[in-house]
Design goal:
393 residues, alpha/beta, Alkaline Phosphatase, subunit A, 8-stranded mixed β-sheet, 3-stranded antiparallel β-sheet, 15 helices, 11 strands, 37% helix, 13% strand
């Protein structure tokens, strides 16, 4: 009988080192349901903090107009896709709205990892390592692969992300580098070079006529989205015979401190096109697939002085796929009146992101509760899996 069968003291478990211990113990209690042996799971990580109130707009909340009125003015942003009496999808998410109508998209409101501060790096670490804090050397997705005998993992990324690091079999693939600079990076560089009188002129000349600068200003010459080829590649690899059952795709450029309408019109269009590219390329496996789209945190409820939003807490996630019980909005909506906000500034998170992941991994991939609470997400026994996310097998 293993240590876990006998029961293990929490202090003893933590003293062993959560990451290494979890991997070592996984084979002793990991049993995946054979009926789910052909299922697939893809995580899409939007780095930078997607403004969930912009992507999934709570138009039925009486306080929303006061916070986002200037964003909602006619002509300032694309007309939204109404989902129900409370929520609407941003107008750029047309394909996703179609999936919702077919009950293959499930937005999840007011979700965040257990880290509830506002550092990009620490929040991203928390999303990827599967614990309640930052740091760690292994990721929950690698531990998930380890819990599924014979499974393989794929990361579509330039380097192996923390989420996929560990002892289980995983590989990486990266699309060709873009020819143009990400417009948000270009904006940051402009501010940096502007402070140097010797370099500012040269930098301005370099950017003259550049398509990236045009895109940053909301021009029509937008750069080619990297997310679309990445999602197409994930579909190709995961649809292949004996292909990876667990996949990871990342995208950057979601940190919208200024010009949010222009930036997110473009970025959400890229997300919509990327999901469609995966859907079209993954038809052989689509009905057995769940795609989870997440970000490290949400943003402030009110608009700042530069037409953007700052780092917040509660955000929005999306589940998509033929196995998803969609056509509605999940999560416990906390409201956006001032008294309902976290620190009187941003959406209060009501769902731990690990609960969302656990619900998918248990009901879609057949990973047991003990494995999830002790191995994949160490020391998370009090975090219960979300229910009714998926169609009944």
């Amino acid at each position: 009988m293993s240590m876990l069968d006998k029961g293990i003291d929490r202090r003893q478990f933590l003293s062993l080192g959560a990451g290494a211990t979890a991997i070592a113990l996984l084979p002793r209690f990991a049993v995946a349901a054979s009926s789910r042996s052909d299922t697939r799971f893809l995580l899409v990580f939007l780095r930078g903090g997607l403004d969930g109130l912009h992507a999934l707009q709570p138009i039925g909340d009486p306080a929303f107009g006061g916070l986002r009125g200037s964003f909602l003015e006619t002509g300032r942003q694309l007309a939204s896709h109404r989902l129900d009496s409370t929520f609407a999808l941003h107008g750029a998410l047309g394909f996703m709205a179609g999936l919702h109508a077919r009950k293959q998209l499930l937005p999840v409101a007011a979700v965040a990892p257990p880290y509830r501060q506002r550092s990009h790096f620490e929040a991203q670490d928390c999303v990827e390592n599967g614990t309640s804090g930052s740091g760690g050397s292994t990721g929950w997705m690698n531990r998930c692969v380890a819990a599924m005998p014979g499974a393989k993992g794929l990361a579509v990324a330039a380097v192996m992300p923390l989420a996929m690091r560990g002892s289980a079999e995983t590989t990486t693939w990266s699309p060709p580098l873009p020819e143009q600079v990400d417009p948000i990076l270009w904006q940051r560089l402009q501010l940096l070079y502007a402070a140097d009188s010797a370099l500012s002129r040269s930098f301005a000349e370099l950017g003259a006529g550049d398509a990236s600068a045009d895109a940053m200003q909301g021009g029509k010459q937008a750069r080619v989205a990297r997310l679309v080829p990445s999602m197409s590649a994930a579909a190709k690899f995961m649809s292949a015979p004996q292909g990876p059952r667990i996949g990871f795709v990342e995208d950057t450029g979601w940190d919208t401190h200024g010009n949010e309408i222009g930036v997110l019109d473009r970025k959400l269009s890229e997300l919509d096109a990327g999901l469609q590219a995966f859907h079209d390329g993954a038809q052989p496996i689509w009905r057995n697939t769940v795609v989870a789209i997440v970000t490290e945190f949400g943003r402030t409820a009110a608009i700042n002085g530069t037409g953007g939003t700052d780092h917040g807490t509660g955000g929005t996630a999306f589940l998509a796929g033929g196995a998803v019980n969609g056509g509605r909005v999940a999560g416990d909506w906390p409201g956006v009146a001032r008294a309902q906000l976290n620190d009187a500034r941003d959406l209060r998170a009501t769902t731990d992101m690990r609960s969302l992941f656990k619900g998918v991994l248990r009901d879609h991939l057949g990973i047991g509760d003990a494995t999830l609470s002790r191995g994949v997400f160490p020391d998370s026994g009090t975090i219960l899996p979300m229910r009714d996310l998926l169609l009944t097998v």
